[in-house]
Structures are given as structure tokens and as C-alpha cells.
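Notes to self after the Tuesday call (sharing in case useful).
The group wants a holo model before anyone commits to mutagenesis around the pocket. I volunteered. Ligand is pyridoxal-5'-phosphate. Logging inputs and output together so the record is complete.
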Amino acid sequence: MSVEANFAEIKKNIEQACENCKRAKEEITVIAVTKYVSTERAQEALQAGIKHLGENRKEGLLEKYETIGEEAAWHFIGTLQSRKVKDIIGQVSMIHSLDRKSLAKEINKRAHSKIPCFIQVNVSEEESKHGLNTSEVESFVETLENYENIRIVGLMTMAPHTEDEEKLRGIFRQLRALRDRIRDKRYKHAPCEYLSMGMSNDYTIAIEEGATHIRLGSSLVGE
Ligand SMILES: *Cc1c(COP(=O)(O)O)cnc(C)c1O
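Result:
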């Protein structure tokens, strides 16, 4: 299937999910996760009208960036080793995987301007997943106050791979409640308005539970 055809189907699902929860579809940013596919396929996504591309590895990002450059807004969505920050910091428009102080320090040091970051939260507390536990997030946000090149724009999570809808809703709701608590503190360095949650198998549920950024790989550009 072409990216365009996949995207048409996904847009219908997004509209339906938005209708179900009385949200405007303009609130949702679709990020095409291109980590499994070629640069040509990523360009197809741009031609289909998708401006946001996501990569989880430095190598994949730089390879595609070389051809596509600033035509796309690049989202770094994977585990980020501190020593690689300097290689991608000039290319990325958002980092979704901030999960520790040492990484924040490195981003703050290497960035030339404020970098919008999501804090990655391991809501489901699966051992295989990265991210802070929910109980650690609020104090982590407070420690970032003087990092002038970091702006905490929201929270990100990866839900477990399950068909259990209630379980997924529970996880998304916890992230949203945590987002609300941080947002309501009105920190200057952490407006924390956004929720990066929802992937190919759970994005409609994530939207109903408040997602603002959905990250779609297999269903949109393929595996
Ligand atoms: C791969 C990946 C996605 C996309 O996964 P699909 O299930 O293929 O949509 C989203 N977010 C992160 C962090 C990923 O690594």
C-alpha cells in the first residue's frame, strides 16, 4: 500500500476517534516513524503531506536527514546515549525520550537553542521499557529548572503490546493525569502541554485519552 492510501485510512480513524471524545483533529500531530523503511519511503510520507518524521537511532536519522534535511521536522523517539547527543542535536526538532539527568545535562550543553523535550515515562513498569517510573517524574521536572536549553513540552510513553483495551486506557489515563499535575504547576521551563502516546496498534485509544502526538510506523509507512 502507498503511504498516501495508508494515511487516508488513518486520517479517517483519527477523525472518528476525535469525534468520539469531542476533540478537534487539529490537536493531533502525526509522526511517521520511518525506522524500518528507506529514505525513498520517508519521502513518500512527505509527499502524502506528513511533515513530522520519527527515528529511534542516530544512524537512521542522519542517513535520511542527509537527503531530506529541513523539509521534515525530525523527532528523536528512541533511547538516546549521551555521547550521541552532539551528533543529532542540530537536526532534531523534538526529543521524546528524555529519561535521566545525565542526558539532560548533555542536551543542555550541546544545544544551540531551546530543545523541546518529552520526558519518557514507563507507566506500565515493564522491565524491558525505558523511562522514569511515574513516581519519579515530578521531582525530575523540578531538577531541570536551570537547564536553559531544555523545554519540557510533555510526557511520552510506550504502552505494552496488548489487545486489552481497558489496560491500555488505564496506562494512557495515568500519563495524562501526571501531565495535568505538572502542567498545572505552570513551571516556566516545563509547560508540559503535550502527550506523545499511541502507536499503530493503539493510537485511536490514545487519542480518546488525550494524545497530542501519535507515532505511527508499521500502519503508516510499513515495516
Ligand atoms: C517503532 C516505534 C514506534 C512505531 O511503532 P509501530 O507500532 O510500528 O507504529 C513508535 N514509538 C516508538 C518509540 C518506536 O520505537
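Two things stood out.
The two ends are 12 Å apart (CA to CA).
The chain has one domain: 3-216.
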